[in-house]
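note to self — DONT lose this again. spent like an hour looking for the file last time. sequence + predicted structure for the chain T wanted, 138 res
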Amino acid sequence: MEKHIGSCRCGGIEFYFYNDPINSIFCYCKECQSLTGSDKWFGLWVPKDNFKFTKGTPSTYTRAGDSGKDVNYKFCGNCSTALCAEITAGNFYSVSATSLKSIKFNPKMSIYASSAPSWAILPNDVPKFDTLPPGMGG
């Protein structure tokens, strides 16, 4: 079992997850754009049972997702680093790839591409979906 370690920028909050994520995505939805201040979020989908905070307690912001179920964003209340989003509809965390100590993952798909800003550059080598892929609610 490989252990992947991450933290916020100031080091006040640390976490880890085991094994490879079940998916790795670029998300171009408007919510992710607001969260990152950029054109996308690079999220690693990790089953909740494989993820654990080990230092500090993150702050939480909750919104309703497209499913109507909660999306709970976890971030550092000190440095405001976005660490992950708990996707309650899927029972997983979308972990910020950029918060890992070592990033070895590449995106496997781009989702909500129809919401990408006109200046965004979407990778050509990964599948692109206007919302979600078939079978995932899209």
